[in-house]
Specification:
Helices cover 27% and strands 29% of the residues. It contains 6 helices and 16 strands.
Length: 343
C-alpha cells in the first residue's frame, strides 16, 4: 500500500551571517551600493516527503504536474501601457521581468489594479534602479520581493506604467509567467529489490524502485501554505483521471469516441487516446497498466506529435477496457492517499 512519510516543511531565510555574504557586503559598500537593497525579502518554503511503495510513472507524473500543469496566476502588462522618455530601457526585457514576478497565489487578484510611476530626479548623474517595491497595487495584503530590479532609469527620465493585470495559465505554456515553484526535487531511493547494484540495468518499465523523494521550494511571497502545490497537483490529476474513467466505463459498443477518450481497436492492439493530455498522464497510465497485470504482452505510452495535446496508451490485452478501468481506479486511489497525507 502506498504511504507518504518523512514530510518536512522548512522556512528558508536568507542567511546574512554567511561568510560569503559578509564578503559581498564589503564589495557592495566599496562600490557605494546599499546592502539592504540586495537582500531578498519575504518568505519561501521547502517541502520534502517520501512516497513509499509506488512506481516511477506516478511519482514522476506528480512531479511533472507540479512543474508544468498547475493553473497559476501571473502578472502581465500590455506594451501600449508602458510610457517612458528613457531610450535606453529595453521594453521587451522589462515586460519579461514583470511577467517573472512571483505573486501570492493565496490572494484573490480578480479586478486588481496595478500601476508604476517613477522619475529619476538625480542631479549627480546617478542611474536609478526601478524595483518591484515601486509597483502600486489595490489588493490588500499584496506583497512581492521588493528588491527585485525591473529596469534602470537614467537621470531626469520617467517611467510610467498605467496598468498591469493578472491572468491564469500553465507553466508548460509560459515558463516565466506561470511558474508554481522555484525548484523541484524528485529522486528514486534504492530498495532491497533493486538490481542495479549488480550492474544489470533493466528496462525502465521493469525497474524495481518503489520509494521516491519528492519536494520543491516555493518562490518568495508566493504562498503561506507550502503544501498548496502538491495538493493542487493531486486534485488536477485526480480530476483528469476521473473524467477518463467515467468515459471508459461507458464504452459498450463502437464507435468508442467520447469528449476525453477515444479508443481504436487495431490488429492485435488497442489504442486509448486521451484528449488534451500529453506525456504526464499517458506515461502514468501505461506504467500503471503494466503493474495492474505484469503478464500483459505489450503496453507503451506515446504521443501523436509533440505539438498535439493527445496522449496515447497502446496495449495488447484480452480485456483492454477492464484493464484500463482497474488502472485508472488504482491511480485515483493512490493520488487520494497522497493528497490526504498533506491535508
Amino acid at each position: 500500500m502506498l504511504k507518504v512519510t518523512d514530510i518536512k516543511i522548512t522556512k528558508k531565510e536568507f542567511n546574512t551571517k554567511h561568510a560569503d555574504w559578509k564578503k559581498c557586503l564589503e564589495y557592495i559598500t566599496l562600490a557605494g551600493g546599499n546592502p539592504e537593497e540586495m537582500i531578498p525579502n519575504g518568505d519561501k518554503y521547502q517541502l520534502y516527503a517520501v512516497l513509499r511503495n509506488t512506481f516511477t510513472g506516478l511519482a514522476n507524473g506528480l512531479k511533472n504536474c507540479i512543474i508544468d500543469e498547475l493553473e497559476i496566476t501571473g502578472l502581465e502588462v500590455d506594451l501600449e501601457e508602458i510610457k517612458t522618455d528613457d531610450p535606453f530601457i529595453a521594453i521587451d526585457d522589462l515586460i519579461k521581468r514583470i511577467n517573472s514576478i512571483p505573486i501570492n497565489q493565496d490572494l484573490n487578484w480578480k479586478d486588481a489594479k496595478f500601476s508604476l510611476d517613477v522619475t529619476n530626479n538625480s542631479d549627480d548623474g546617478q542611474i536609478l534602479p526601478v524595483r518591484c517595491k515601486d509597483i502600486k497595487c489595490s489588493v490588500k495584503g499584496a506583497k512581492w520581493s521588493d528588491n527585485l530590479i525591473l529596469t534602470y532609469l537614467r537621470p531626469k527620465k520617467r517611467l510610467r506604467i498605467k496598468a498591469m493585470f493578472c491572468t491564469q495559465g500553465f507553466n508548460k505554456d509560459d515558463g516565466a509567467l506561470y511558474s508554481a515553484v522555484g525548484n523541484i526535487l524528485y529522486w528514486p531511493l534504492p530498495s532491497a529489490k533493486t538490481t542495479l547494484g549488480s550492474g544489470i540495468v533493466p528496462a525502465s518499465i521493469n525497474i524495481t524502485y518503489r520509494d521516491f523523494e519528492i519536494g520543491y521550494t516555493t518562490h518568495r511571497n508566493s504562498t503561506a501554505n507550502p503544501k498548496k502545490y502538491i495538493i493542487m497537483a493531486c486534485d488536477s490529476l485526480i480530476g483528469r483521471l476521473q473524467a477518463n474513467l467515467n468515459e471508459v466505463k461507458e464504452f459498450k459498443d463502437p464507435p468508442y469516441i467520447k469528449d476525453h477518450v477515444t479508443v481504436t481497436m487495431g490488429k492485435g492492439a488497442t489504442t486509448f487516446t486521451f484528449v488534451n493530455e500529453h506525456w504526464t498522464l499517458s506515461n502514468m497510465i501505461a506504467h500503471g497498466c503494466y503493474l495492474e497485470d505484469p503478464s500483459i504482452p505489450f503496453v507503451k505510452p506515446n504521443l501523436k506529435d509533440p505539438s498535439y495535446d493527445e496522449g496515447n496508451v497502446v496495449l495488447r490485452h484480452p480485456e483492454p477496457f477492464k484493464l484500463m478501468v482497474n488502472t485508472l481506479s488504482r491511480l485515483i486511489k493512490d493520488l487520494n492517499t497522497i493528497k490526504k497525507a498533506f491535508m
